Amino acid sequence: MRFENVFIPYRAYWSTPFCRWQGSLAGSHAVKLVAACAGNSLAKCGATPSELDGIHFGMTVPQRQSFYGAPWLGALIGATQATGPTISQACATSARVLASAAASVALKSADLSLAVAADRISNGPHLYYPNPDGPGGMGEQENWVWDNFNKDPYGGVAMVQTAENIATKFDISRAEQDDLTVQRYQQYQMALADDRAFQRGYMQAVELKLRARITTIEQDEGVIATVAEKITALKPVVELGSVTYATQTHPADGNAGMLLGSEDAAARLSEDSKIKIQLLAYGEGRAEKAHMGMAPVPAAEAALDRAGLTMADISVVKTHNPFAVNDIYFARQMHYPAEDMNNYGSSLIYGHPQGPTGLRLVIEMIEELVLKGGGHGLFTGCAAGDTGASLVVRVA
Fold it and tell me: In the prediction, which pLDDT does 101 show?
């Protein structure tokens, strides 16, 4: 998809901190929490819920009554006139949600749309599927999160094995993965400098009632200090493999959201009307079976082609990198230095709540482009089923 006249108001977006699996957000209903965060963000930028022409909601892990999806979210924030799709596309959910919201603006069915994604990986549901052959059968059971992390019904392997397959196929060494992970941790420290000045531009603190006390979650929870001497001592996750618990991401909880609209709507709601942010294109791709981390390359190529750009035009690259292998492969194939990607942090370091991960990365990409004085940014990432999704943004 190529988009015409789709704009993002500067800082009319947010991400919560990402909290590690079974951390502070483990008991919060993802839909109710994201509704509170969306309401805060709308109020901050001066938008009213009644202005919303549509809500595009992404979620990959069911919550109680999440069947009602985007319409319920709209009601919770007071946008009872608005509706829209509820989208689930594994780790590509955010990119697809943004593309859906952008399409509604480009087709002039909306002047202002809310794109939002939320997930709680902690305490994922245990499901029972009745036996379709009649009474008396035992039926089938599924742990929604754990079982799907550990076996692709088509590829037949756990997600970590897809990274091992790429490492073997392209001779990506353990040392390369370790070195890049240390660098990604150091890049994350950029976002924490000067009392988290970078993150304070978009990160929304979350207030929770925990153990009868009000607790405020202001920053990512569960990030582990990554230094060479510690991670080189780790054993591989898979016997005789190369991927360790340090060189893959960790499950997390959180949410993120963004307004998209016409040029006039974006200028009106922008924190600085001189900053113009335009969503240019969306692309997706699929890799060979059981090689998930290869998919960001064809997805990026598709988005760049639709935007009429090449990697030489790109100032900022952000990737959803559940494995260090992903970024090494992408850098080789796209002839783009791995060390120039993912400044200020990436999901490899601060965790992966699935649905909202890509949205946070796009927000951070915009913030970095503003700091650079403008330019083009590319987001790309992999998703379950050996797929990938990508977006191109321009900041002027």
Answer: 98
Longest Cα–Cα distance in the chain: 67
* Letter string b/e over residues 131-152, b meaning 16 or more CB atoms within 10 A of that residue's CB: eeeeeeeeeeeeeebeebbeeb
Q: By three-state DSSP, how is residue 330 classified?
A: helix
Between CA 70 and CA 33 the distance in angstroms is 14
Report the predicted TM-score, pTM, of the whole model to 2 decimal places.
0.97
Phi, psi of 143, deg, nearest 5:
-90, 105
By CB atoms closer than 10 A (0-12, 13-18, 19+), residue 13 is buried
User: What is the C-alpha to C-alpha distance for residues 119 and 321, in angstroms, rounded to an integer?
Assistant: 18
Domain 13-124+249-269: give its CATH code.
Answer: 3.40.47.10
> 55-64: per-residue pLDDT in tens?
999 999 999 9
Task: Determine the pLDDT at residue 179.
Answer: 97
Query: Which residues neighbour 337 within 8 Å (Cβ) at sequence distance 6 or greater?
Result: 331
Provide φ and ψ at 302, rounded to 5°. Answer: -65, -45
Tokens of residue 51, six digits = 């202005």
Helix residue ranges, H only, the chain: 30-45, 69-76, 93-106, 144-150, 159-169, 174-200, 228-231, 263-269, 296-307, 324-334, 347-350, 357-371
Domain boundaries, the chain: 13-124+249-269
Beta bridge partners of 86: 57
Using the 8-state DSSP alphabet, how is residue 233 labeled?
A: T
Q: pLDDT tens for residues 64-89?
A: 999 999 999 999 999 999 999 999 99
Mean pLDDT of 366-383: 98
Asked whether residue 187 carries a pLDDT value surpassing 80, the answer given is: yes
Q: How confident is the model at residue 132 (pLDDT cuts 50, 70, 90)?
A: confident
